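#help-structures

NK: newbie question. if I give both the sequence and a SMILES, will the prediction place the ligand too? trying with adenosine-5'-triphosphate
OV: yes, paste both and it writes out the complex. here, I ran yours:
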Amino acid sequence: MNEQDQITTDPTKPAQRMRAGSMTISATPWIVAALVLIVLPMIFTNNSAITIMNQMAITIVFALAYNMLLGQGGMLSFGHAVYSGIGGFACMHIMNATEFFAVLPLPLLPIFGGLFGMGLAMIVGSFSTRSAGTVFAMISLGVGELIAASSIIIVAFFGGEEGISGDRTYSLPFFGIEFLKQIEVYYLISAWLMISTLLMYLFSRTPIGRMANAVRDNPERAEFLGYSARWVRFYSFIFSGFFAGIAGALFAINYEILTEENLNTTSSGVILLVTFLGGVGFFFGPILGAIVFTLVQTVLSLQTDLWAFYAGVLFVSTVMFFPGGLAGLIMMHVPAFKFGKARHLVLPYIRTLLPGLITILGLSALVEMIFHFRHAATGEDEMTLFWTTFDSHAVFPWIIAIVVTAAAFWITRRNVPGLVEAWHKANNFSGGRT
Amino acid sequence: MNSSANSTPALAIENLHKSFGKAKIIRGVNLKIGKGERHAVIGPNGAGKSTLFNLITGRFPPTSGKVRLHGRDLAGLAPFQINRMGLSRSFQITNIFPKMSVFENVRCSLLWSKGYRYSFWNMVSRSQDLTDAADSILEQINLTARRDLPAGVLSYAEQRALEIGITIAGGANVIMLDEPTAGMSHSETDYIVELIRTVTEDKTLVMVEHDMGVVFGLADYISVLVYGEIIATGRPEEVRANPKVQEAYLGAALEAEH
Ligand SMILES: Nc1ncnc2c1ncn2[C@@H]1O[C@H](COP(=O)(O)OP(=O)(O)OP(=O)(O)O)[C@@H](O)[C@H]1O
Ligand SMILES: [Mg+2]
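OV: that's the protein plus ligand as structure tokens.
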């Protein structure tokens, strides 16, 4: 069944750009995803890779839950970490309730996290979902700050500054698995990733999920069709709270410790940025955002102390230049593929993206050099960048970096018109454009 | 006032007033609209016709007075509650879901009346009854060819047709249309008039309309609203002959037609 949505191919109107294509509920992507999840740890076998993948999966669940609000329901929350945090803390307490935990198989624990997230969302949602705009955003921020602040005061539940820790292995063994090994935890998290993603996707196809879109676009009209915009928002909100709670539970299982950091407004801000980076207009957007962000956060942070700076630049440029996010960028190309004209784009892309990439690397090299020049301990003038070691106080490396960056930038600029032209050519089936 | 005077009227408006700040916009409207009646509200620009619609449908609370739908007082009810009682309206300024597909627009307007409510255990695409009903509405409003386009890219006339489609989809028994043909060409208007006639068969229709051809072609009764007051109500020929109406409005409007 065809049931989507906008199509425009105009690269100058990213905001109006489309969700193209048909939306048959097909099993193929799910089977592929499951296979990838099964195979991944056989390719990346070392523990740190598995840790990264666990972190990624948890972020994906959280970002998808967040997008139930932002993308599908049009509600901007600045305090959503609270719901995953509550789910996580609740699970830590269940882990520490040894008698109960001893009869509970660990794979069932996330359900409790979800229920706690949902419970809190019911309380907050009962008054916050009255409107979707600034009022909702402000309430979410206020509640977020409030609960983050009480986490330091209510030590019994939140454990104060040390947080709460526990031991997942005290649970009832699950078919003999005690979850001592990282890989066992990986498969547990992956299973929950699949289940949660599927359920959230199915939610978007239900009557209430469709009405969430309708209320997002035009709450007043929805009211004249028999739906209370407030109740529609409330349902989206509590389901989002449920899946956020699952993400929190998975965090608890993976790290066996929760602290204030899990529910403070910084974490809430990060999940907003992750979701936006991936693209709020498409179901799979937050998945991309979570993957890219986790890679930046883990892999890039091993390479440079400035990773947060780069992440910030990435977010700002997404918001400014690609408001459709990564998913929007990808889906922009669907029409060209559909009409078999995508190959016209390959060469122009290489011509601009390759020098563009060199420009970005050059700029980041300059940033690193400035940072090293200003902050390295006296006497430590040597630095290593792109497998080259040099003296950051000498003039020559600076000249090279500046010249390479400028040249790459110049080539990029010169090739952009060609790309724009190719883009128009590849998309001119809609007529009227030359 | 009409043939079904002894049964409960579909809509009864009693001494309705509405002020925005100091401006008195609706100034004591009394009106009964019988079941199955096609009732046109006409009047000059700014007379308060849309405001009257907004008061009836719960968009604004009245300053004083009552509105009854099938005898039930609507005071304090929200638009969605009034809609669930079987009243559906369209808007003078097109009010659709521009980012959703045309099909999806219609399907969303069917959901409540088909009993899906806040269901999160049905899949809309698996519900053949929904798909069929939505497609047949699209057929009726001549938008089948536009089915999968975002509603926002339709032409003005197509959006107006969709507006009507959304309004009638839920099968409400009282339909209120605010200037359904405004801005349409002659042939589009003829088509929409026929459509309105078919879909409101056996239903109560209340309609604001400036096109006198449409009014006299469709309406069983006409009320003339001038400056927040109804100055005449009756059969089309009575209203046409009414000297007060001639003076206040209709003379000018009929002349403008020709
Ligand atoms: N929400 C509002 N706040 C303040 N004034 C309003 C509001 N809605 C309508 N009005 C005023 O009430 C008066 C009547 O408006 P209304 O839209 O009901 O007229 P109308 O009869 O539908 O006119 P038209 O034929 O142009 O559609 C106008 O003077 C308008 O400015
Ligand atoms: Mg009006």
